[in-house]
Amino acid sequence: xxxxxxxxxxxxxxxxxxxxxxxxxxxxxxxxxxxxxxxxxxxxxxxxxxxxxxxxxxxxxxxxxxxxxxxxxxxxxxxxxxxxxxxxxxxxxxxxxxxxxxxxxxxxxxxxxxxxxxxxxxxxxxxxxxxxxxxxxxxxxxxxxxxxxxxxxxxxxxxxxxxxxxxxxxxxxxxxxxxxxxxxxxxxxxxxxxxxxxxxxxxxxxxxxxxxxxxxxxxxxxxxxxxxxxxxxxxxxxxxxxxxxxxxxxxxxxxxxxxxxxxxxxxxxxxxxxxxxxxxxxxxxxxx
Length: 288
Known about the structure:
By secondary structure, this protein is mainly alpha-helical. It folds into 2 domains: 16-81; 93-104 and 127-283, Serine Threonine Protein Phosphatase 5, Tetratricopeptide repeat, CATH 1.25.40. It is built from 8 helices and 3 strands; from the N terminus they run αβββααααααα. The chain has helices at residues 4-105, 154-174, 178-191, 198-210, 215-228, 235-248, 252-262, 271-283; strands spanning 134-138, 141-145, 151-152. The chain has a 3-stranded antiparallel sheet with strand order 1-2-3. Helix 2 packs antiparallel against helix 3 (178-191), helix 6 (235-248) runs antiparallel to helix 7 and helix 6 runs parallel beside helix 8. The longest helix has 102 residues, at 4-105. The protein is rod-shaped. 19% of the residues are buried.
């Protein structure tokens, strides 16, 4: 029979072999738990970072929307200012043209005939200051007199009537009565397409469309001036307005070519036309 001490030693030895793997397993379990905790902390940190990034993204998206709205508003205001600038330039052009027309219409006063050399005629009342030529019937038949009471022949009376109607149409443009002015200019052109003021008539007919942003119709009138009256007073003005109309329609390449060719068609552009051409070249991003 085995000695009790020997049996106890064997039992202790067996228990030590069993306890060793258990200790190792427990140690490994502790390491795994630590790693799990570490991973949980890292996951929590990543989630926090994700939340912050998402919040930043939402904020940036709102900022982009706000900036987009501001850009659109700036673009709208810019277009409105461009429209106002074009209108102001148009108004200035009209006023300058009115001054030019007034200067062109000034002529030396016709000397009054010697009363002793003329047969006496019935007196006629002088027409009002702003009156147009009119016909007065008397004992000697019909007399046509101008606004100053001067007697006119039939041809002079017709010419005076044409000029008076032209001046009236210009005033209608200045008052913003574009439809009435357009009808007046069309009637004048149909009446006498070869009149000395024909290029002016067609130019201002185009202006009645241009000020209403009807660029296609405006261009057709300006083109008639450029083609039919290359030596006319409104030739360069018409080329400028053709370029501006093309640019306003988004046809920038054609606009830049038209504006660029203007310098080749005149030795020296008038100051106002040169300035407006330069502004148009910059506005449409032309290279020259």
